[in-house]
Amino acid sequence: MIYWDHAASTPPYDEVIQTMAEVMKKHYGNPSSIHRMGEDAAKLIKRAREVCAGALNVKPAEIILTSGATEGNNMAIKGTAMQYGGRGKHIISTQIEHPSVYDSCLDLEKQGYEITFLPVDAKGMIDPADVASAVRKDTILVSVMHVNNETGAIQPLADIGRVLKNANPLTVFHIDGVQGFGKLPVDLEEWQADLYTLSAHKIRGPKGTGVLYKREGLTLHPLLSGGKQESGLRAGTENIPGFVAMSKAMRMAAEQTEAFMKEVGAYRDSLLDWIRKTPSLEPNSFEEGAPHIVNVSFPGMKAEVLLHTLEEHGMLVSTKSACSSKTTEPSRVLLAMGRSEDAASSAIRISMGMTNTHQDVKQLLTALDAAVSRLQPLRQEGMK
Ligand code: PMP
Predict the structure, then answer these.
(1) Closest atom of ligand 1 relative to the 8 alpha carbon
(2) Active-site residue (options: 323, 335, 370, 378)
(3) Count of CB atoms situated within 10 Å of the CB of 224
């Protein structure tokens, strides 16, 4: 079997697995305990925080260690709304956000906040001019993702940050960086980001860990009440093995970004070439997108059928994103790009990593050729 679902989760580095085991075995003290083992554990967290901060080029005090990006996104959006709701109740996000952002906004809508979900063009891109015209005096938050998890579309964050801060310097700018970190250059200063979410299991770190960057000086209302961990922003005993292992994965991902773009970007180009030469397919990803995600529709065929046919050929791909694959509705992201219901229901996502090889890509193309030829007659049957 060859794994093509790296946007859903990634194989942890050996070093990550070893670190988790080692820390669990030796450093099981509670960092809030004031004896030696507690202090040891607290030191490990301090060091992990420094390494995470280094990978993002920010200060350690700006790092909040979380259970992953779902928590980070909820904390960023609801925490901002709860903190700054007195100043205004308008929030801007987009039609293509991950459910952890999109549904957080919908939750707030039910509580009286007004949400503007910006549209995207046929390539899945936000127009910064739309941000500029949507921002108002009472806009407390703008939340835009770096890279879309279904299509790989990269958003123009520097332009969005600039028009936003020109229009209303008090508006908090949150970026869901999950699919961009380690895959593309990240510059939180240039983007003028106030909040930035990461998840470790997308960069070969452990599941159940993540980072929320919070610019110094910005205040968030905590979602969890209890202890004073994470400067009072996230009560609960820390996941020390996870955080130490995550910090290693973040360091390695940051160091390997250029290599990732080159190696994995070449795989993407081969796939996009093949899609262009196959008339029955419609691409939903483009050369200017992220190096690791290729989304393609096979109109007239349910995505699940194509997925399982590829699985019979030893290729593991996904439909939509892992978080929404259990729903039967067509992809919200592809519909927002103006795709038909048919195209949006027949899309598969192939997402790649550095553990894949050129040989894997060759095998994938052979399997795709075979699957498309085999399903072609059924598809025509269905389209009659
Ligand atoms: N945002 C994006 C863009 C994602 O791809 C994901 C993972 N599917 C998340 C947020 C949620 O991350 P986690 O699995 O760490 O909760």
Answers:
(1) 8
(2) 323
(3) 14
Q: Give per-residue pLDDT as tens, 319-347.
A: 975 556 666 689 999 999 999 999 999 99
CA of 278 to the centre of ligand 1 (A): 31
d(CA 165, CA 173): 9
Residue 249 CB-half CA count within 13 A: 30
pLDDT in tens, 34-72: 999 999 999 999 999 999 999 999 999 999 999 999 999
Characterize the bridge pairing of strands 315-316 and 2-3.
parallel
Q: What is the pLDDT of residue 380?
A: 56
User: Is the whole model's pTM more than 0.80, yes or no?
Assistant: yes
Q: Check: CB of residue 7 under 8 Å from CB of residue 349.
A: yes
Residue range 260-282: mean pLDDT, rounded? 97
Residue 369 Cα, ligand 1 centroid: separation in angstroms? 31
- Would you say the CB of residue 103 lies under 6 angstroms from ligand 1? no
Choice from 178, 179, 181, 351 to test ligand 1 binding pocket (greatest atom count within 8 A of CB): 178
Q: Residue 384: pLDDT above 50?
A: no
- 323 is a catalytic site residue: yes
pLDDT of 379 reads 81
Ligand 1 centre to CA of 72 (Å) is 9
CATH numbers and ranges of domains, the chain = 2-9+257-382 (3.90.1150.10), 14-255 (3.40.640.10)
